[in-house]
Model the fold of this input.
Amino acid sequence: MNKTQPGTLFLIPVPLADAAAQKSFTPYLVDTINSIDTYIVENEKTARKFLKEAGIRLPQQQLIIHDYGKHNRNSPVGNFFKQLLSGKDVGLMSEAGCPGVADPGADIVAEAHKRGVRVVPLVGPSSILLALMASGFSGQSFTFHGYLPIDKAQRSRKLRELEQLAERNRQTQLFIETPFRNNQLFEEVLKTCQPSTAFCVACDLTAESEYIKTQSVALWRKEKPDLHKRPAIFLIYRNT
Done:
């Protein structure tokens, strides 16, 4: 008796902002979502909204949706593989952006490789890469650090460390913060970093309110945008 060949795990990017669907998906992505009926998602509400915007033709009540969000984060990832191992193709979606990048979906992708499941990443928006592209900083060498420490003293030390890395390695340093703490982090950068350090703020990427600006810390001290509750990526670089 022949063993069933596993299905394919498609990594499906989700728009970063409202009303940005047309900027975010390709015809191939639309064809893909209309060829499968099973999804592993970080946020079911976001996933269903995106599938509707992207033009899924199958009635949503017929979809099989597995939630790997924060309330199910401790569930064994093997629970999500029943359909894949029976030969069905499955889509993996983050809440926003690319699954597996700054996203717990990486655990599911790792498990897919262990189980011999083919993994296919689809083209779509990544806030990290969009910010890097628009910053004017080095795209040859860069590091994404995720969230910096909440403690002010530890955060200041980390920022100084990133500034040193940027100068020593000619390497772009990227980091984020919970949107409601963006302004505090912004102020900490201005307080901690050298005036000549280049600093880029990229927020609301792909949205109509998109804001991307690069200038020295010295110039930023004269201009302080309100970043409260606006999804943002922060980048620093030293080119002197």
Observations:
- The chain is about 30% helix and 20% strand.
